[in-house]
């Protein structure tokens, strides 16, 4: 983010599960997220994005050529096919990066989560690794030479081993609450 002069502070890097298969979940505010989180995504990690991203010039092609996956949310059968590909990748040792909100929040708080990433973690008994970035909608002012600062924090992993699909709501609630509370803490700190 040097070109944009945004200061990014990374916290909790030691917590990131680099040598283990995991499902990484992060809050999604805007296209900046991909740039901000890009510095911390572990190797051998697939990213799932919505199918319409393929139509973004250059980005869509690079995203696809990097081996990432598109999710067709309008076609349930195709979406399930993508999730089967995710299962195979997780079983072969790749990790998954997903924005569980399913869309950008535009800095208006953490939206409710979709179940896909949680199903993948539970079905393959791999931990969920939450990551958050402070809200940058009102924190960055691009009319200034130094537009501001954001904080990215890796939170403690949430184990799924021994949990079944009956536990999905509890695990989703736990992840949501941990992430929401930490984002609020970071935002308050940056004010």
How do you describe this structure in short?
The chain has 191 residues and is of the alpha/beta class.
Structure, described:
The protein is built from 5 helices and 7 strands, in the order ββαβαβαβαββα. It has 191 residues and is of the alpha/beta class. Helix 3 runs parallel beside helix 4 (116-124).
Q: How many helices does DSSP assign?
A: 5
Query: Mean of the pLDDT scores?
Result: 82
Alpha-carbon distance between the two ends? 21 Å
The amount of helix comes to 25-40%
General shape: globular
Q: Which consecutive residue ranges, at least 5 long each, have pLDDT under 50?
A: none
What order do the SSEs take from the amino end to the carboxyl end, as H and E? EEHEHEHEHEEH
Provide the descriptors you would attach to this structure in a database record.
single chain, seven-stranded mixed beta sheet, 191 residues
Set down the secondary structure blueprint:
Layout: E1 6-11, E2 23-26, H1 32-38, E3 45-50, H2 59-65, E4 69-71, H3 76-91, E5 95-98, H4 116-124, E6 128-133, E7 148-154, H5 168-190
